[in-house]
Amino acid sequence: MEKSLAKINAQIQALQRRADTLRMNRRASALQKILGQMHEFMISPEDIQTAYARNRPARAKRRDVQRRPDSRSVVAPKYRNPESGETWSGRGRAPRWLTSAEKAGRNRDDFRV
């Protein structure tokens, strides 16, 4: 049983190496065709970069924006805590200082900026 399993694993590894070699050969062939067409039509790598950036799918652009928190628009604060100076834009969940003040009987409009 052990010998059979070892033999099968060796065959799997050999087939994986062969598949990798075939992929690399196809890739090299594709690159040669691309380079040939670039020379034929006088296309520079900069032309490719410009065209690629212009034709990126909208979904990829949205994903990039979501990754960068610094690209979010800043919303002006609507409420300010007079004691600590903390602010809240009015979006999302209300901060603890505001909810506790409301529970104590104060009105949210008392904290408006």
Name the descriptors.
113 residues; mainly alpha; 2 domains; two-stranded antiparallel ribbon
Strand order in the sheet with the most strands: 1-2
How would the global form be characterised?
elongated
Summarize the biggest pleated sheet: 2 strands, antiparallel
Spell the H/E element sequence. Answer: HHHEEH
Mean pLDDT: 86
Weakly predicted, low-confidence segments: none
Task: Write a structural description.
- The protein is built from 4 helices and 2 strands.
- Strands 1-2 form a two-stranded antiparallel ribbon.
- The chain is mainly alpha-helical and about 110 residues long.
Task: Please give a quick description of this structure.
This protein has four helices and two strands, in the order αααββα.
Write the layout of secondary structure elements.
Blueprint: H1 2-40, H2 45-54, H3 58-67, E1 79-80, E2 87-88, H4 96-103
